[in-house]
Amino acid sequence: MLRIILYASTALTILGSPAIAQEQLRPGREVTGSLSPGDDRLDSGEFRDLFEFQGRAGQQVGLRLTSNDFDPYLMVRGPGDFSEDNDDASDDDRSALLNLRLPADGTYRVTATSYESGERGTYRLSLIGGSIAVPQGGGGGGQSTGGRLGTGTTRGQLARGDETLSSGEFVDSYALPVRRGQTYELALSASGFDPYLMVRGPGGLSEDNDDDPARRGTQDSRIRFTAPADGEATVSATSYESGETGSYSLSLDGGGGGERARDTRGDTGETALRLGETRTGRLARGDRQLDSGEYLNSFVFAGRRGQRLDLRLSSTDFDPYLSITGPGNFSGFNDDDADASDSRDSRLRVTLPADGEYRITATSYEAGETGSYRLSALADSGSARAEPAVQANERASSGGRITVGQTVAGTLGSGDETLDSGEYVDTYSFVGRRGERVAVELTSSAFDAYTILRTPSGEQRENDDGQDGTNSRLDTVLTEDGEYQVMVTSYASGETGSYRFIVSPSQGSPRQAAVQSGARVFAVMVGVSDYGGGQNNLPYTDEDARKLAETLQREGVLNPSSVVLTNAQATIGGVRAAFARVAAQAGPDDMFLFFFSGHGDQSDTAVTGLEPDGRSESIVLRDGEISDVEMSRLFGSLRTRLALLVLDSCYSGGFARNVVDRPGVMGLFSSEEDLTSAVADKFRAGGYLSHFLRTGMSGEADGDGDHLVTAGELATYLRRQFRTEVESVESETADGQRNYQNLVIDRGGVQVDDVILRLAAAGSAVGAR
Question: 54 pLDDT exceeds 60?
């Protein structure tokens, strides 16, 4: 049987109840105890006994809870958000069993409880150092493999008798020494099962991969990572489904030395590029594309603060275009090498602003161009602050009309115009389009650079210092079509000297640039109108779910694995299964959306930090309810870049404290936690939030026109619509107190500029021009 016991509120109960004894567990010892009516309880009614043990990072331990009187259930919580539960050790064994590799030093809390509320009786709880064999129905024996992993290929076999993950998959674990800043590539292939790779290590290293993104149509697994700290990582070779067995090959590339340049044909992943290396590659049909149609290959470079790079991209088959992005919004672009007259080759000379991972993109100037190329990453020994002579693609200038992407070299001098405050100024103009993102960059070694951007309607933005101290960089999305003015000037009056200036296409922040276009929204959309007599029926709420799916599909962002459940399909089991299935397919580059339109409910519970009003909220499905505590547990299983919980139901605001409690989760709720939500009859929608979410995600929330809907833009759009349309809609509490329906938005750790989705018509993708 499968069960999710919800711990978010009980964790606070434990921490806030010093009278509850927590017995110490020690490896190799078995503890006997009993669950009885005098014991403390979980919020869901099960009796529980509490234990503790001290663990070390990387330590492997096994826990087993057995009883002849009740169905045992184990829970373990530890440092950070460590959380593991188990109901049945196997299909044939009701005892609860967990084999764990501990992520950090500290205290781990163990809860011994039962599967059903109110079950009682004696039990035995054991803790061992190492793993406990998982009972198998058919016997058989396989020899566990593992050990130390070295460069090259290691062959192994998943077999019965191997260690298992708590979810039942066999696993072989390997130790891999890693160095900070070094990039490693792991590949796991097998013909007898669907491979799955995991890496855990120092500095918070945590990487998982199911299917190699660089090889379409294959189940092989691949991970490329850059170690954040020195130490020993654990590489786990396992399978996607529990119980799968068979032979495999595990290969390691990286960890030192040079690497032969290799063809990156068809590679949509990111290859490590090291200083002094030259790589040959090919842009080809089937490669990843910018939204503007150019094919691209991406490379990862581990850089150091102050490091000077000379990046060169050449091709005889297409017009090369080169870009680099990195920590702190750092970015640089180049079309044609300024040092090579009449050459289309691309060259970038940059000084890196910080330690960290940089992404170098090789692409073409025109959409659809293909062919071979050479990319080199060389040390630039030239002066970082020297002002070179005017190059072939530059013009000496003291102002005038320029085009986006053109570099000009100029001089502030005593004969120039001045601002009212006395600074010399050269003024440039360019034609821009609404929604176009540009970077205005001014560099000089002679004076403290300052730029002023003025829109066609007269609005003004200014920037003093960019990433490089006294140089100026202003990154912005143009708000209207027309002619823009840029004033190149100095911070202090009377300063003079030479400068270089460019208005170039921008990718935005690295977080925005990394968001891919296409079907990246993995959604579970639920709407219940027909409650089959269990509740009064609601108009349009089933249509809310269907229409949302149609909107996201029409915009080209909905992943085909997404699920719509309405009416009789929207059962507790159906929602849990759909959530697990869709969540398992969504990866770290994706957005997960859970949407519900229907009835909401409240029930009495203990007063805690999560429920200060003593009321627990839930969404009402066809055959029962899912509580805020369970929703928190479901969202805890996600590994996406961002997750969005949208509930259009009475009392839905009460879910905010439970679910929006971890990075990357944002919540949208149609009403406060003690108030009802109204049907939006005027829009033929089950709820106002449902209607405005659809229109917002179809593009109306894109306030600056850059075809990215950010968290801040969506929140602002929804608040404006609610002020206009819902301000006078009456609402009431469960005991009849009257008020008005108010939208609840909780961004948690999601930043204002974090991208909810990239619309299909986007023109501001990585390197878009």
Answer: yes
